[in-house]
Amino acid sequence: MDVVPPKPGMIDTWLKKHTLIHTGATRHPFILAIRDGTVDISAFKRWLSQDYIFVRAFVPFAASLVVKGWKNSDDSDGDVEVILSGLAALNDEIDWFKKQASKWGVDLSVVAPQQPALDYCRFLENLTSPEVEYTVAMTAYWAIEAVYQESFAHCLEEGFKTRPELQEVCHRWGNDGFGSYCSAIRSIADRLLLKASDDEVRKAEVTFLRVLEYEVEFWNMSRGIPRY
Ligand code: HMH
């Protein structure tokens, strides 16, 4: 009997269509510098403190996704459980950031958000609006998590020269469990995209691209590259 290959999902199509910007976000010079051990520690600390600000804003976004999932999916889909486990991980992540900050001598209480972090947080806040469709918000959620997963996993892949003291940072997002989590949310997004209207699919694609752009800006900021 012939084995019918699974139909490629929409996300697969987008990843092929937008390879350049996707690679720009997941193989950014900041990440490559972590991987080859040349990263500037002041840049790393800047990333750490700005990402703490991002993660705090990511919590209400993930919470809004619980609401959208609850309203839009069947219990049997299990979406809410998946999102909820993400929220639980964020709870640990906030603690983790505090521990890392004290390890690196960063005082999180005095960190001023930089413009790219503010812009990205504003984007997240806009996505919490009830007007933003569940499909669009879920696509954003997947894209945001997947960029970190792919970026930091790369710092632990064969041939890495990541400094030992940065390996645990890379492990936070580069571990296999988080890889499986990203696959689970990608499957949810693909399932939603399959039954979404053309208009919704277009909006989700634009949102995916915007996430990639914000991620690139965030890495640029971490490196200390001015925007204009
Ligand atoms: C900027 N993107 C940014 N920060 C993060 N912590 C993630 C994605 C993954 O949660």
Short synopsis of the structure:
The protein has one domain (19-223): Up-down Bundle (Heme Oxygenase, Chain A), CATH 1.20.910.10. The protein is built from ten helices and no strands. It has helices at 10-17, 19-26, 29-35, 41-72, 79-104, 115-127, 134-154, 164-174, 176-195, 198-223.
- CATH topology description: Heme Oxygenase, Chain A
What does the radius of gyration come to? Answer: 18 Å
Q: Which ligands does the model contain, each kind named once?
A: 4-amino-5-hydroxymethyl-2-methylpyrimidine
Count of alpha and pi helical runs = 10
Order of helices and strands: HHHHHHHHHH
CATH level-4 homologous superfamily? Heme oxygenase-like
Give the overall silhouette: globular
**Average pLDDT value?**
95
Cα distance, first to last residue? 58 Å
Strand content: under 5%
Which CATH class is shown? Mainly Alpha
- How can the largest sheet be summarized? none
Helix fraction bin: over 70%
Q: What is the total tally of β strands?
A: 0
How many domains make up the coordinates?
1
CATH architecture: Up-down Bundle
The structure class reads mainly alpha
Low-confidence stretches: none
